[in-house]
Amino acid sequence: MKLYLDTANVAEIRELSWLVDGVTTNPSLVAREKRPFSEVLGEICGIVRGPVSAEVVALDRDGMIREARELARVAPNVVVKIPMTEAGMQAVQALAREEVHTNVTLVFSANQALLAAKCGATYVSPFVGRIDDAGGDGMGVVAEILPIYRHYGFPTEVIVASVRHPGHVLQAALLGAPIATVPYEVLKKLFGHPLTEAGIARFLKDWQKVPKA
Ligand code: E4P
């Protein structure tokens, strides 16, 4: 299973670059950095060897294709995030022919994921946290997408996105999702367990009782 970091913060990416397999950004994450996007994207692509998702903001097919080509020129590991709309899927289809890698974003249903795969998306991002927030079952949608992709042999990879807590990562792993993109705070939580900390403290305390040679 691959773990991506869901952030545009260069310090967070640098700290966890030894662990993560890729990075996803979106316009809201980029806005937090208060720096020009091209500068941030170039820096991230220099730190991470794996795929780095960068989102278009145009909403029409030709505008998305134009922006996608510009983003793809920044570095060979750029993956262009395209929103799940009809125009977006037309753009994905055209970009697939040019071998530009795409990540279809804002996916909330298995049917949307089916269309993204049919159009040749490299990745599809179901937003599990936002589905849960709206009273749905985010991981249930992932559980629907995975067998559909297997059934038809679609090469599109599922990125479990909008991850809110370690439970989402665990469920993604149990379902066999190939990738989860995880915010910094959630990724850091995966290392910890209260019994690990208590165990270390007890071992260190007991170590003091061992006679020195
Ligand atoms: C994924 O690619 C998105 O950037 C992200 O996971 C959205 O998460 P949010 O719902 O917490 O904004």
TrEMBL record:
Its main location: cytoplasm. SUPFAM superfamilies: Aldolase. Pathway: Carbohydrate degradation; pentose phosphate pathway; D-glyceraldehyde 3-phosphate and beta-D-fructose 6-phosphate from D-ribose 5-phosphate and D-xylulose 5-phosphate (non-oxidative stage): step 2/3. Keywords: Cytoplasm, Pentose shunt, Schiff base, Transferase. One of its GO terms (biological process) is carbohydrate metabolic process. The keyword Cytoplasm applies. Its EC number is 2.2.1.2. InterPro entries: Aldolase_TIM, TAL/FSA, Transaldolase_3B, Transaldolase_3B/F6P_aldolase, Transaldolase_AS, TSA/FSA_arc/bac. One of its GO terms (molecular function) is aldehyde-lyase activity. It catalyses: D-sedoheptulose 7-phosphate + D-glyceraldehyde 3-phosphate = D-erythrose 4-phosphate + beta-D-fructose 6-phosphate. PROSITE patterns: TRANSALDOLASE_1, TRANSALDOLASE_2. GO terms for cellular component: cytoplasm. Pfam families: TAL_FSA. It comes from the Bacteria. It is found in: Cytoplasm. The active site is at K81. Transaldolase is important for the balance of metabolites in the pentose-phosphate pathway. HAMAP family: Transaldolase_3b. Belongs to the transaldolase family. Type 3B subfamily. NCBIfam families: fsa_talC_mipB (TIGR00875). This is Probable transaldolase. The lineage of its organism: Bacteria, Candidatus Bipolaricaulota, Candidatus Bipolaricaulia, Candidatus Bipolaricaulales, Candidatus Bipolaricaulaceae.
